[in-house]
Structures are given as C-alpha cells and as structure tokens.
UniProtKB/TrEMBL annotation:
Residues 87-199 form the SNF2 N-terminal domain. Pfam families: SNF2-rel_dom. It comes from Hydnum rufescens UP504. This is SNF2 N-terminal domain-containing protein. GO terms for molecular function: ATP binding. Keywords: ATP-binding, Nucleotide-binding. Gene3D superfamilies: Tandem AAA-ATPase domain.
Amino acid sequence: MSSEKIRTELGWLNGFDAPSFQPFRHAEIARLNYTAWSHPSEFIALDLSNPNPPPNFISQRAKWVQLVGIASLVSSLFTQTEGPLPEGILLADEVGVGKTLHALGFIAFINQIIQGRTAGIVDPPILSLVLQVLSHFLLFLIIPIEDNPFFAGVRDIPEQPHLIVVPHGLVLQWQQEAQTWFKKGAIDIFPYTGTVQSHRFFWGKDGPYQNSEFFKSGKLSRIIIIASQNVCNFGKCP
C-alpha cells in the first residue's frame, strides 16, 4: 500500500499528514529550534493549502514506514466491539526509524476522531466499511458503516490529556519534536519536571495546566511529557 493510500485510509487528505500537523518546518530548525512556538507569526503567515514550501522552509511528511506504524496502532487499538479493554501495544525497532512520530501521529489521529465525531463527520476509512448499494434508479449510493468505532473498548474517547513518559534526558527532545510537528493552537504541550513545589504550581489555578485554553474548554488536545523518575516519586508528593 502506498503512502498516499495510507494517508487516505487515515483521513489525511491532499498529500498532507494529520490536519493538526504542520506541513512545513523551517530550514534552520536543527540549529535554532525554529518552530511555530518560538516564531508563531512566521508560521501563521504560511499558505497551508499550497504543498510547495515557501522560501526558508522545507516540507515535512511522515515516511512510508512511519505511516504504516501509525496505521498499525490505529488498527490494533480501535476495535469492532465495546470492551473489554484491549492489551497494550509495543513498538520495537531500530533507533531513528521514527517511533516518536508514530506516537505523535497516533495522538493526532485520536484528536482528529474526537473532533470529527463532535462535528458529525463520518470516521475515516480505516475505521469504517464502505458499501456500495445499487438504488432503484441505478445510482450507486455510498453508505459508510462503522467497522472499528471503539477506542480501547469504548465508543466515546475520554476527554483526558495524553501522557508521554520518557527518561528525564529526553523530555526536552520530545517537547521539541511535538512543537515541530503540531501546529501551534492545535494542541498544548506541557513538560512536567522539577521539584514537588513546581508540581504544585503546575496543577494550581495560576499554573500552566489550568490556564491552558484546552483545559478551559474541556477538550482533549493536551500532551503532558513527564520524566519517568517523576512517576517513581509521585508517592512521595503530599
């Protein structure tokens, strides 16, 4: 199956990746960490309907192997029947193949499904069967029938943030990758590190989490990137 066919199955149209993904990255991103978060005005001005990158920008698209991985996650974790919860899934491959983008692409897909269902949009082909029915007037009617509508065994995806647990030294790297791929305003990204005192501030009414626009609206579009050591220390927090 070609890359474009997989994108179509995922509902990613016109040669682009997920609707919440940024199709271009700045040519100086590796040297300057130049993203929509650090330079929002320049990214807002981009014509995202044009597949050709403007000056100083380059296209960014998921590779075929990454698209296959994302589609595999979707096929494994969306089920035909409600409950019980499916087992987890393990991605194991060589370093540099793209497991980070697998995870971010899957998060983008989940958000896409939530927003689409809220708006009454039919799920993309990877989650549905499409039947062609011959009408009395010899016209083909396309009738979508949900095939795998349940995520982790439930029809309504919980309105909770996505949690990414990584070693402490990779928190910043994951934050930078998420900011490189996601459009600013499509999702909020929170690194969760530091002391117990900083954790209290993080969750408090004046902290970044409760002041997120997505928290106020009750939407799912939030990613928390936490160091594995902080998870181990949770039991020590008052």
